[in-house]
Design a protein that fits this description.
- By secondary structure, the protein is an alpha/beta fold.
- The chain has two domains: about 180 residues, 3-Layer(bba) Sandwich (FAD/NAD(P)-binding domain), CATH 3.50.50; about 200 residues, D-Amino Acid Oxidase, Chain A, domain 2 (2-Layer Sandwich), CATH 3.30.9.
- About 35% of the residues lie in helices and about 25% in strands.
- The protein contains 13 helices and 18 strands.
- The strands form three sheets. Strands 10-9-8-2-1-11-18-17 form an eight-stranded mixed β-sheet. Strands 6-5-13-14-15-12-16 form a seven-stranded mixed β-sheet.
- A hairpin with a 3-residue loop joins β13 and β14.
- The longest helix has 24 residues.
- Bound molecules: flavin-adenine dinucleotide.
- Flavin-adenine dinucleotide binds next to α1, β2, β8, β12 and β16.
Length: about 425
């Protein structure tokens, strides 16, 4: 009898894992509880996802070629989206998750994966297989499904991780509104995405305005200590954007959690976790789509090798490969979040640092192509010197942050500010 893999969650990570498993002829079942609503998301995707997973560009609403970074005091840095060697594929893709996820799910089904519209409500791992209990989202009936191995692709709250007895991960929250604008208003964001830094829009992460075909998605991310202020921070961001949003029509308000720590262990006896369930969001950008897809692919490839002996010792080859390939990048981006968003003076330094052309190229090499090549020695010296100058300037003469309203004063200052 064919081996079967059960994947809980059929969003970007789960669907990609299913496609990779089917490519190797492995019988695969996806269970997804939500097939109509989109996953709350800014929908910024690197070109690497399109090349590595052979995705059509028709999924892209807009190609962003410029980023505007605005510091707490209103300093602006305009950054072209270009890597060290211009490739013709230098852009940030803006997608709508309802379109993107729908495509991946459909591809998984076309390649032979079964899709059940149900919510998993129980999971047990036994010596000879796994059993999941689920409730049909069509008629509410309850069923049990058995498989050889389970992949938890069920997001930041991961029921799979809970059923495996794992602790929840520390979580940030991101809240976003999609606002329909006229064509002439959208011209301001033709191929530009905005990032705003500052205590009153995001004390420890960042806030954004990401352009989609006919609307702008404005949102804020906020770390575990500040989640209760999320709505007030979003209102502040909209005030900042001011007249650009005048007359806009609210299409959707959406919010969700983001994991803030990768799991130490991502593979167990007969079970694996991928994407947000494994905590694989990167810190500086809150980026998780590519990482969910890539971890889905890596998990599927490890499973294909060990499906006859799916013990933790074998399946952990997935996480070993992961950290070997991406450990340095994760560590660096985590440090960058701590360093760049630590307080408002650092946010000023971060904004100024982004004016250095080598910083720009390194940033977009790592974002667009998932490569981290060290900069030449001379460039490193220049970057360091620019940062030291900026740091001295911002710590000796404080730039006054823009304050939109009272709420900001109720939002606690971050450490060192
Ligand atoms: C507001 C916001 C903005 C973001 N912006 C970006 C961005 O611009 N770019 C980027 O790369 N990342 C962004 N992220 C992060 C990105 O959305 C996630 O990292 C990514 O969706 C993770 O994919 P995943 O497949 O691991 O999990 P998810 O996309 O969270 O999918 C989990 C799936 O599991 C299903 N599920 C859960 N429980 C059950 C159950 N019991 N039974 C059946 N199904 C279940 C859910 O319905 C869901 O479909 C953002 C996140 C938020 C919240």
């Amino acid at each position: 009898m064919a081996q079967r893999v059960l994947i809980i969650g059929a969003s970007v990570g789960g669907a990609t894992a299913a496609i990779s498993l089917r490519a190797q002829g492995i019988e695969t079942v996806l269970i997804e509880r939500e097939l109509t609503k989109a996953k709350p998301c800014g929908g910024a995707v690197p070109p690497a996802a399109f090349h590595e997973f052979d995705l059509p560009e028709s999924l892209i609403d807009r190609k962003v070629k410029n980023c505007l970074i605005v510091s707490p005091s209103g300093q602006e840095t305009h950054v072209p989206v270009v890597g060290s060697v211009p490739t013709g594929h230098d852009y940030v893709a803006m997608v709508r998750r309802e379109v993107f996820d729908g495509y991946l799910r459909e591809r998984a089904q076309q390649r032979g994966a079964d899709l059940i519209h149900g919510q998993v409500i129980g999971l047990t791992v036994e010596h000879d297989g796994v059993s999941a209990r689920y409730r049909s989202m069509i008629d509410g009936s309850e069923h049990v499904i058995r498989a050889d191995v389970v992949i938890g692709a069920d997001g930041a709250y991961s029921p799979t991780a809970k059923f495996l007895g794992l602790d929840p991960l520390p979580r940030a929250v991101a809240i976003q509104e999609r606002i329909a604008l006229t064509e002439s208003q959208m011209a301001r964001w033709e191929d530009t995405a905005d990032l705003y830094l500052g205590r009153e829009v995001s004390p420890d992460l960042y806030s954004w305005a990401f352009p989609k075909r006919d609307h702008i998605a404005v949102g804020i991310g906020v770390g575990p200590g500040h989640t209760r202020h999320a709505r007030a921070l979003l209102e502040n961001l909209k005030r900042r954007l001011g007249a650009s949003l005048d007359g806009g029509r609210l299409l959707l308000r959406e919010a969700h959690a983001l994991p803030m720590e990768p799991r130490r262990q991502m593979a167990f006896d007969r079970a694996m976790l991928i994407g947000d369930a494994a905590g694989l969001v990167v810190h500086t950008s809150g980026e998780g789509i590519y990482w969910a897809m890539k971890s889905g692919q890596f998990a599927a490839e490890a499973l294909a090798q060990h499906l006859d002996a799916p013990a933790a010792a074998n399946l952990r080859s997935y996480e070993k490969r992961w950290w070997k390939q991406y450990g340095t990048m994760y560590t660096f981006l985590r440090w960058l979040q701590w360093w760049g968003y630590g307080n408002e003076r650092q946010m000023e330094v971060f904004t100024e640092m982004c004016r250095n052309p080598d910083v720009q190229r390194l940033t977009f090499d790592s974002y667009m192509h998932k490569q981290m090549a060290p900069a030449p020695w001379g460039a490193q010296m220049k970057m360091t010197w620019d940062i030291i100058k900026s740091q001295v300037r911002n710590y000796t003469q404080r730039r006054m942050p823009v304050r939109e309203q009272d709420t900001a004063s109720r939002i606690q200052a971050t450490a060192g500010d």
